[in-house]
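ingest -> validate -> predict -> emit
validate: passed (alphabet ok, no gaps, 237 aa)
predict: started
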Amino acid sequence: MRRFFGNIVKNTPVFSDESLKHIKVIRLNMGENIEFCCNSKIYICQVTKLKPFEAKIIDDVTEKVDRELQYNLVLFCPLLKRENFELVIQKATELGVKEIYPYLSSRVIKRVSKQEFELRRERFEKILLNASEQSNRTIIPKLYPLEDFNKLSGLYKDSSNKFIAYEDEALKGQKISIEKSDSKNIVFVFGPEGGFSKEEVDLYKDNGFKIVSLGKRILRAETAAFYGLSCIDYLIE
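emit:
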């Protein structure tokens, strides 16, 4: 069943403009049922009108079809070349990430200002919305403003499950493992095309991040993101 996001006004689903564009393309039929998400709730809705598009709520099925991870999976994502950055946030959404922190570090190749990044936010958030609908997410991941990498190191102090993938760890074999913790936050950090400096890794280590290997081979930045998130998904699901 197809899933869409929007708001509820007077017990009536109100679809986002992006969802309405998608609905027009896929040509839903009168009487067809769809899933509608609002504020982490999932409803079954029935199409009651095509032009303009309208639907009515039939049932609340949140507990039956919720596919969210039971942890708050957080990704620290370097600013990659645009097509690669967009691919990472799309696939991270499919893999259950709830928060994404884009960052600039010393070896990031593609550099833009925080203001330039915000000019592209609308496009990035469309990608997150479409990926959330495609993968039947209950929420749309939160994309934070672009930040300096070192400033992010002090976040999530309550979590013992914070991992930074570092190529110099490749042959040492320190693997990702999830510890029991009162915190539901799991943080995964991967590096840009140019990798991390030793000083950056040391700073994160000092702030409680565990340095981990993603295998013996050196991976492309976007591959490292998918690999690490997939390992975490496997361990917690």
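The radius of gyration is 20 Å.
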